[in-house]
Automatic annotation (TrEMBL):
<dbReference type="InterPro" id="IPR050624">
    <property type="entry name" value="HTH-type_Tx_Regulator"/>
</dbReference>
<dbReference type="InterPro" id="IPR001647">
    <property type="entry name" value="HTH_TetR"/>
</dbReference>
<protein>
    <submittedName>
        <fullName>TetR/AcrR family transcriptional regulator</fullName>
    </submittedName>
</protein>
<keyword id="KW-0238">DNA-binding</keyword>
<dbReference type="GO" id="GO:0003677">
    <property type="term" value="F:DNA binding"/>
</dbReference>
<dbReference type="InterPro" id="IPR009057">
    <property type="entry name" value="Homeodomain-like_sf"/>
</dbReference>
<feature type="domain" description="HTH tetR-type">
    <location>
        <begin position="8"/>
        <end position="68"/>
    </location>
</feature>
<feature type="DNA-binding region" description="H-T-H motif">
    <location>
        <begin position="31"/>
        <end position="50"/>
    </location>
</feature>
Length: 185
């Protein structure tokens, strides 16, 4: 059963307030009092839903990852050992998706002390796509490729897309391919 409508509305107001405040100041300088004032809620409502602002930020990130996964469907599952063309096509769609939402991603990445966005992303997608019984090697390959790819995509967004999504996807897939040749999996 889903959350109560009031709870969903309160959480949405707090998430919107957090993103608005993150445009103006560092995440770690945002207080619960400020969030609640902007959201038009009291502190008890905040604490009924979140332990602290870190948990609220995690909820914002999780919403974004969930939306990305729903929007992109099977593109997220283009396996490491899938044919080059299939991986390139899937990654190209993912990069295009991120570019289309550059404002939100730029905000989350520019206000990203301790690399929380990357940590939350690798945790979220690792749970989805790396089986619990995976070897340490498989987990490390996943981390290497997801963090490396993510870093390149972030740089690409920061530089305002110096090449097209297809070209960046091809580069990332090429690098992954050369890693496989050296025993990456």
């Amino acid at each position: 059963m889903g959350e109560d409508k009031r709870i969903r509305k309160s959480k949405a107001a707090l998430k919107e307030a957090l993103l608005t405040l993150m445009k103006k100041k560092d995440f770690h300088k945002i207080s619960v009092k400020e969030l609640c004032g902007l959201a038009g809620l009291n502190r008890s409502t905040f604490y009924a839903n979140y332990r602290d602002t870190d948990e609220l930020l995690l909820d914002v990130h999780t919403d974004i990852f969930r939306q990305m996964t729903e929007t992109l469907g099977d593109d997220w599952t283009a396996a490491y050992d899938a044919p080059f063309g299939k991986r390139k096509e899937a990654l190209s769609r993912i990069i295009g998706y991120l570019a289309g939402r550059q404002e939100i991603f730029s905000l989350l990445l520019s206000n990203n002390d301790e690399n929380m966005f990357e940590k939350h992303m690798t945790d979220y997608y690792g749970k989805l796509y790396v089986p619990q019984e995976a070897s340490w090697r498989e987990r490390y390959v996943f981390l290497y490729h997801s963090i490396g790819s993510f870093s390149l995509i972030c740089q690409w967004l920061e530089e305002r897309s110096p090449c097209g999504p297809e070209e960046l996807a091809e580069l990332i897939c090429f690098m992954a391919e050369s890693g496989k040749e050296r025993g990456g999996k």
